[in-house]
Amino acid sequence: MASNIGMYVDGDHNLWLDEATPSVHDATTGNGLQAGKVVKSTGICGSDIHFWKHGSIGPWKVTKPHILGHESAGVVIAVHSTVNKLAVGDRVAIEPHITCGNCEPCLIGRYNGCKNLIFRWSPPSHGLLRRYVNHPATWYHKLAVSHSTKIGDPVLICGAGPIGLITLHVCQAAGAYPIVIKDIDDTRLQFAKSIMSCVIRPGQTWAPAHERVL
């Protein structure tokens, strides 16, 4: 197998590819954490660009070579012996954090507020823009073997930000109907409606596809 490489950034705004952890051996045996994954795609978030261009976001500063990326999906290539919810070959998306499981937010199910959160992207914890990653199996989410949106499929999009709007365009191109988009910001909903007339905001009524004219 090819060696592990990652996309690094430093405080001087340089970008380069270099060797990364875990080693190929650790990634393919499930050593270190609970499941190894070969990364098939990692989205570039605006925050990645911010780290590159500005060297920091809030309290997180790039002070030494750091691997970017946190929007990752791939294929499981190794599973630790204690894991029973995943198998080699599973297609997965990854939540890029590690929580303690013991603090109050974790215990009441609001783990995003974990007081001891390790986020696989914010320095000093390297991100996911690399070839192989080991990560706790708890935060791998299995994806359907295949899925496609087709003409007449109803779609609900939660969030009318940049990703939601891209999803909106893709679903419209595939012929989905109705397309319902939700957001707590009415300005975003108005903008979504302005760029695509077939969008239905929550609370609106809609006609079956054969009764409408695009």
Low-confidence stretches: 208-214
The helix count comes to 5
Kindly provide the name of the CATH class of the largest domain.
Alpha Beta
Number of β-strand runs: 15
* CATH homologous superfamily placement of the largest domain: Medium-chain alcohol dehydrogenases, catalytic domain
Number of self-contained structural domains: 2
CATH architecture of the largest domain: Alpha-Beta Complex
- Overall pLDDT confidence: 85
From the N-terminal CA to the C-terminal CA, the straight-line distance is: 50 Å
- What structural category characterises the helix and strand content? alpha+beta
Gyration radius from CA atoms, angstroms: 20 Å
- Give the helix level as a range of percent: 10-25%
Question: Topology of this protein?
Answer:
Layout: E1 5-9, E2 15-19, H1 24-29, E3 35-43, H2 46-54, E4 56-57, E5 60-61, E6 66-67, E7 71-79, E8 91-94, E9 97-98, H3 104-107, E10 118-119, E11 132-135, E12 140-142, E13 155-158, H4 162-174, E14 179-182, H5 186-195, E15 199-200
Parallel strand pairs: 13-14, 14-15
Antiparallel strand pairs: 1-2, 1-6, 3-7, 3-11, 4-5, 7-8, 8-12, 9-10
Family: Belongs to the zinc-containing alcohol dehydrogenase family.
Protein name: Alcohol dehydrogenase-like N-terminal domain-containing protein
Domain Alcohol dehydrogenase-like N-terminal: 39-143
